[in-house]
Amino acid sequence: MDITIRAARPEEFDAIGELLVAAYAADGLLALGPDDPYTGKLREVAHRAEHAEVLTAVDADGTVLGAVTFAAPGSPYAEIAGPDEGEFRMLAVAPGGRGRGIGETLVRACMDRARSLGLSRMVLSAMPHVDKAHRVYERIGFTRIPERDWEPVPGVRLLAFACALSETA
Question: What is the DSSP code (8-state) at residue 165?
Fold first, then answer.
């Protein structure tokens, strides 16, 4: 796979925001379509880069094929993470990049970042109906932690997953 994972660059922020919106819409994750209030959050890449870490997957030509936000403990982007946990959010892969292992590679990059910070566990929240994503997480070693399921807004349920970093390579 000729893909590089690295910190997103400011000149890529708009493209990353649009990739996230397009991927979330294609996967049915924006209940109100283009008018969904979450589209604004997805496009706030510059803000996320100031308060968390935005990683991107690019091909040899520099085309952005995927992105994810890694939130260390204390980051305003950490929603369910405890003090010894890293969290990733807003993972998306462009339709043309799917099926190439890019999503898994981005998740593993977040896990490596968490290990580098001495964290013991990685957590995430996911919509219930994204079965392909759930399978990727489970293959990596994530398991469900239903006691931490939550609703960011009434009627939107998110499932919680965790993976002990010592159990994965």
Answer: G
Provide the CATH topology of domain 3-167. Aminopeptidase (3.40.630)
Q: Are 163 and 142 in contact (CB under 8 A)?
A: yes
Q: Which helix (H) or strand (E) holds 3?
A: strand 3-7
Distance (Å, rounded) from C-alpha 37 to C-alpha 6? 28
- By DSSP bridging, strand 156-164 and strand 150-153 are antiparallel
DSSP 84: T
Dihedral over alpha carbons 123, 76, 131, 5 (to 10 degrees): -80
Q: Mind listing the pLDDT tens digit for each residue in 133-162?
A: 899 999 999 999 999 999 988 888 999 999
Element (H, E) at 160: strand 156-164
